[in-house]
């Protein structure tokens, strides 16, 4: 029984997929449903934490008992996180942030009559929100990243995750396998939680609520 074991903890969670505007009516998005991040926020709140959810595009309703900050693009999410992060003890970056955004947002709708038979868009890199939060981290703050990988070989996937955790500098990394039929938009999932030594400290196959609890058990206790 976990009860209200996270009372007094302030937890910031990001969830969902960002949308990068192309023109007033179009965007570049991804298949993240936000379910995992929303489950982390819901479980953290149910366990007594004070929770802020920075929600990009989510396909499930946000929990009632959390503060919700709505964003759309990666740049908006970066700004919201930079402002909110210092007031939180734990940050869980479950959002699927677009790595790139269109270099120019067209003022008006792109019209096929003007573009001819093909269309080329140039993309520029988005800020790495997680990396920037790690650089700006306040004392005793725990930062958790996610890695959604399509690599099918278990050992190779784990190695990708270890390298990603090192690159980002976060305390923990949640690895999950995604593909056309795994991960995104599903109720069930399979994760491994890696610590700063690259050790697998939790492994869960189950619904996203069980995964959320398992992640919080490791990353959120009072230190
Ligand atoms: O580099 P990659 O996108 O695989 O890293 C995934 C982790 O980094 C996730 O926690 C995601 O929320 C975060 N991320 C970010 N800013 C980006 C890209 C990813 O914070 N621009």
From TrEMBL:
Cellular component GO terms held in the UniProt record: phosphopantothenoylcysteine decarboxylase complex
Biological processes annotated in GO: coenzyme A biosynthetic process; pantothenate catabolic process
Entry GO MF terms: FMN binding; metal ion binding; phosphopantothenate--cysteine ligase activity; phosphopantothenoylcysteine decarboxylase activity
Domain (DNA/pantothenate metabolism flavoprotein C-terminal) ranges: 6-220
Keyword Oxidoreductase: no
Pathway in which this enzyme or protein is active: Cofactor biosynthesis; coenzyme A biosynthesis; CoA from (R)-pantothenate: step 2/5; Cofactor biosynthesis; coenzyme A biosynthesis; CoA from (R)-pantothenate: step 3/5
Task performed by this protein: Catalyzes two steps in the biosynthesis of coenzyme A. In the first step cysteine is conjugated to 4'-phosphopantothenate to form 4-phosphopantothenoylcysteine, in the latter compound is decarboxylated to form 4'-phosphopantotheine. Catalyzes two sequential steps in the biosynthesis of coenzyme A. In the first step cysteine is conjugated to 4'-phosphopantothenate to form 4-phosphopantothenoylcysteine. In the second step the latter compound is decarboxylated to form 4'-phosphopantotheine.
Name of protein: Coenzyme A biosynthesis bifunctional protein CoaBC
Organism phylogeny: Bacteria, Bacillati, Actinomycetota, Actinomycetes, Micrococcales
Span covered, complete protein: 190 to 412 of 412
């Amino acid at each position: 029984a976990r009860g209200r074991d996270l009372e007094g903890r302030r937890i910031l969670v990001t969830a969902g997929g960002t949308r990068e505007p192309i023109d007033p009516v179009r965007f570049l998005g991804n298949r993240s449903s936000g379910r995992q991040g929303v489950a982390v926020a819901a479980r953290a709140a149910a366990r007594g934490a004070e929770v802020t959810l920075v929600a990009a595009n989510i396909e499930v309703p946000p929990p009632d008992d959390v503060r919700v900050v709505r964003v759309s693009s990666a740049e908006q999410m970066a700004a919201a996180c930079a402002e909110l992060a210092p007031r939180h003890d734990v940050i869980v970056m479950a959002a699927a942030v677009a790595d790139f955004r269109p270099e120019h947002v067209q003022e008006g709708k792109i019209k096929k009559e003007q573009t001819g038979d093909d269309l080329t868009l140039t993309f520029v890199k988005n800020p790495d929100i997680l990396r920037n939060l790690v650089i700006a981290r306040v004392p005793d703050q725990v930062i958790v990243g996610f890695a959604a990988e399509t690599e099918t070989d278990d050992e190779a996937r784990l190695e990708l995750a270890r390298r990603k955790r090192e690159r980002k500098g976060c305390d923990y990394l949640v690895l999950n396998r995604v593909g056309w039929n795994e991960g995104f938009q599903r109720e069930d999932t399979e994760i491994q939680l890696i610590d700063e030594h690259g050790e697998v400290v939790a492994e869960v196959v189950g619904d996203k609520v069980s995964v959320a609890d398992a992640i919080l058990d490791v990353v959120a206790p009072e230190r």
